């Protein structure tokens, strides 16, 4: 399947952010590197902030939604942490004081949305308020831990952090998610 134009622009932006702070990458530079006209950018994104938010959503949603369907929550968390390390410049810039709130809201919203959709798809019934609260608690807590980890230079080994995230999964959610140490019984 061919890559969409929007995905191509996002991937070009990510590639450029490996060499330069995303804050300093212009729309012109992105489109030149994409071999596209500047107008194409504005067909898909209203501005650079929209590109940043859509890039974050693309990275997170892709990792979460595709992996969670077939893999344990541990593997999803590991992949997300690895992806953050692979795109460290992009995430470090997102966690600057100017962008931090937007990053946290997008990350948490995406995490909650994907986990909620996973529960609905795999367990059918509407999710209780208590389960939804537990999902939010886990997602927001995970976000803070990942923020601190990245802010400290992502030095702690990914596998150690995944084990800590597994151990912090709220009891209400343990019945729904496989981890490295636990499997689901349907």
CATH topology of the domain at 49-175: Tetracycline Repressor, domain 2
Overall 3D shape: globular
Low-pLDDT segments, ≥5 res: none
Given helix and strand content, the structural type is: mainly alpha
Q: What fraction, in percent, of the residue positions are helical?
A: over 70%
Mean of residue pLDDT values: 84
Distance between the termini: 34 Å
The largest sheet, given as strand count, sense and whether it forms a barrel, is: none
From the 3D coordinates, which CATH architecture of the domain at 49-175 would you assign? Orthogonal Bundle
CATH superfamily of the domain at 49-175: Tetracycline Repressor, domain 2
Strand content: under 5%
Determine the number of helices (DSSP H or I, runs of at least 4 residues).
Answer: 10
Number of distinct beta strands = 0
Protein name: HTH tetR-type domain-containing protein
Domain HTH tetR-type: 3-63
DNA-binding region: 26-45
Pfam family, one: TetR_C_8
What does this structure look like?
- By secondary structure, the protein is an all-alpha fold.
- It has a domain of 127 residues: Orthogonal Bundle (Tetracycline Repressor, domain 2).
- Helix content is 72%, strand content 0%.
- The chain is built from ten helices and no strands.
- The model has no long low-confidence stretch (mean pLDDT 84).
């Amino acid at each position: 399947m061919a890559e969409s134009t929007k995905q191509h622009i996002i991937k070009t932006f990510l590639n450029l952010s490996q060499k330069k702070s995303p804050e300093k990458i212009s729309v012109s530079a992105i489109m030149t590197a994409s071999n596209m006209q500047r107008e194409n950018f504005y067909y898909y994104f209203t501005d650079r902030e929209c590109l940043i938010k859509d890039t974050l959503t693309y990275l997170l949603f892709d990792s979460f939604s595709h992996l969670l369907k077939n893999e344990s929550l541990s593997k999803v968390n590991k992949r997300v942490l690895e992806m953050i390390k692979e795109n460290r410049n992009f995430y470090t810039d997102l966690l600057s004081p100017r962008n931090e709130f937007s990053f946290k809201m997008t990350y948490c919203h995406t995490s909650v949305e994907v986990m909620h959709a996973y529960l609905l798809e795999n367990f059918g019934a509407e999710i209780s308020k208590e389960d939804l609260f537990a999902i939010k608690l886990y997602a927001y807590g995970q976000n803070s831990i990942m923020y601190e980890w990245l802010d400290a230079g992502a030095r702690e080994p990914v596998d150690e952090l995944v084990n800590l995230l597994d151990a912090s999964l709220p009891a209400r959610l343990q019945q729904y998610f496989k981890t490295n140490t636990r499997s689901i019984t349907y």
